[in-house]
Amino acid sequence: MKKDVLETLKYNKGSFISGEELSNRLGVTRTAIWKHINQLKGEGYEIESVSRKGYRLVGEPDVLNQHALQMELQTKVIGKRIVHYDTIDSTNNMAKRIAGEGGDEGVVVISEEQTGGRGRLGRQWMSPKGTGIWMSLILRPSIAPAEAAKITQIAAAAVASAIRYVTGCEAGIKWPNDIILQKKKVCGILTEMGAELNSVNYIVVGIGINANVDVALFPEDIKKIATSIKACVGNSISRKELVLQILKEFEALYLDFIHTKSIGKSVDICRAHSVTLGNMVKIINRDQTIIAEAIDLTEEGELLIRNQEGLVEKVISGEVSVRGISDYV
Ligand code: BTN
Fold first, then answer.
1. CB of 19 sitting under 6 A from ligand 1
2. Burial class of residue 297 in the structure, from the number of CB atoms within 10 Å of its CB (0-12 exposed, 13-18 middle, 19+ buried)
3. Is the CB–ligand 1 distance for residue 153 below 6 Å?
């Protein structure tokens, strides 16, 4: 019922709605409405109450815990259980621990801060407190280990679509795992798994988004290649709204993959928003760098390049980094 009261206030978008109308619409007494309003206030919702006018929602808390998210979550599986920390070494580490102990598909681990956030290829991931989205999803698809990289493409498609939806900004995807705003990285995805030789036991997909991070805090070398949504939009965004939208978009694309065994829908999104395709790129693989034209993505989400001899080759995401010729993108 509290959820219904909140939804009605939200639907009214900042206008007043009387206690009587709320009680009629929701079929409960005005006293019950008043109790739910007080509970919502206690949870950080700013609700103005004016006699003879009623109630009006003026602000929402930007909290990422189970309670706050579950009230508005629109998914069936992903986020059924949300484990929220104030501080932790890495949400991927914790998600792997939970998965190793039998945690279900759909568990989401979120932390306000990470003290040992990890990126791809053994890099560190800066995760300051309260301003970013540092979260990891546990999945248990029946797939072969070689298919795990498909989950990165699903996540990239979901995050780019969600950022576009929530902020209106033109988020791009730098294959295989970066989300780009204004030519700089705003989000990275780290997909890890627990597997036998032929089958995946669990997959953990870690998503790090510099949502409201103050870019002035980035070290000089990072400032050149990274940004935050706040720096691009000019004001703080609701992390909660973005997390809810990502989980919704991710679930739709992931379930489509499970049912059809194809990541075609995600690949279409990755193609449409790609900042890699059509450009000359540097493919960096350990100590070898080649320059090639990025021409397309396969239906499996691998990158197709035309090398300098004119031959078309497939690049698999595992160990490579892709960079622009002179810039990050
Ligand atoms: C990359 O671009 O190299 C991937 C960065 C992934 C960072 C996220 S933050 C949440 C999750 N926990 C981690 O330790 N890493 C991922």
1. no
2. buried
3. no
